[in-house]
Specification:
This protein is an alpha/beta fold. Helices cover 42% and strands 12% of the residues. Helix 2 packs parallel to helix 4 and helix 8 packs parallel to helix 10. The longest helix has 25 residues. The structure holds zinc ion. The site of zinc ion has 5 residues, from loops.
């Protein structure tokens, strides 16, 4: 099923990096600049992440003896220092996730660079080091994002969906390791419901969401892949869902030979394999396109949909 899985440390069958994106209320202010402060129930739902879920998740990880990665918008780092301190005290990685969850592919290039660097500075201030990796908010990676990541020395990205195992992104001047994921293991389509944020979808039971996540983990374990769930403290950190996650982690640990690691450790492992020629990853050259495809110029706009 997998053409070229990488060798994992100590003969592990697969690598697992549970990623929690602690967006808190950044997404509400981004969506409703003028009226977010007046949407109090939505704010309370989103603040549940840093206030209640983060301490719960970090304590759960401590119990299992695992270290993982949290992607946190820099505005949330400034706004919720206690949650950040809890994450760091557990030995976990804090990755770049924009400033206010802004979308690079909707911004002029100089603004993309401004927010990228402003956020890196905040992370450097609280962790003592430049972020090793990034998950671009809402996966809104722009045609220029890779250039900015290479220029700023990022080691990895976790926003794309082009494979089941790590691969490299190159722009011809440098590269970053891509640690891919996909929507099926994002908790948003399973759990998100908010009128203020215009998501009215059927909310699933934890058992249904876990069934989907477990299928991805089982396949990664079977074939030597990488399992990167994309979860949010305010969604998956709620009591019944977090209880289901604890059972799921127990299941994964019970299966054996699973390498749980923060993304920065997985990226470093992949870099080492490449440097020592022990494994050759697939390489994607970006951008895929430099503009609209020329064929579209030949059809009526009405036909293009
Ligand atoms: Zn996010």
């Amino acid at each position: 099923m997998l053409k070229n899985p990488p060798p994992w440390p100590n003969g592990a069958r697969c690598a697992v990096s549970i990623t929690f994106d602690m967006d808190a209320d950044s997404i509400l202010h981004l969506a409703h600049h003028a009226s977010a402060h007046n949407r109090v129930a939505a704010i309370s739902m989103l603040r549940y992440g840093p206030e209640v879920a983060i301490p719960r998740i970090v304590e759960m990880y401590r119990r299992f003896g695992i270290r993982q990665t949290f992607f946190v918008p820099a505005w949330c780092i400034e706004r919720y220092p206690q949650a950040v301190e809890t994450i760091l005290s557990g030995g976990h990685e804090i990755g770049h996730h924009g400033y206010l969850h802004e979308h690079p592919n909707g911004l002029p290039e100089e603004e993309q660079v401004y927010w990228l660097r402003r956020s890196s500075e905040v992370i450097k201030r609280v962790t003592g080091k430049h972020p090793r990796g990034i998950r671009v908010p809402t996966y809104k990676f722009s045609a220029a994002t890779l250039d900015h990541l290479v220029a700023d020395g990022f080691e990895y990205d976790a926003s794309l969906m082009g494979d089941d195992v790590p691969y490299l992104l190159t722009n011809g001047k440098g590269s970053v390791v891509e640690l891919p994921t996909h929507y099926g293991v994002d908790d948003w389509p399973h759990y998100m419901g908010s009128r203020d944020l215009s998501y009215i979808m059927p909310v699933k039971a934890p058992s249904q969401a876990m069934e989907a996540f477990r299928a991805d983990f089982d396949a990664a374990w079977q074939y030597g892949g990488l399992f990167v769930p994309v979860w949010h403290p305010f969604l998956s950190g709620r009591l019944a869902r977090c209880h289901a996650i604890a059972e799921f982690i127990e299941y994964m640990l019970g299966k054996g030979n699973v390498w749980f690691a923060p993304m920065e450790d997985i990226a470093a492992h992949i870099r080492e394999l490449v440097a020592t020629k022990k494994w050759e990853p697939r390489v994607d050259r970006l951008p895929y396109y430099t503009g609209p495809i020329p064929e579209l110029g030949e059809v009526e706009p009405a036909l293009a949909h």
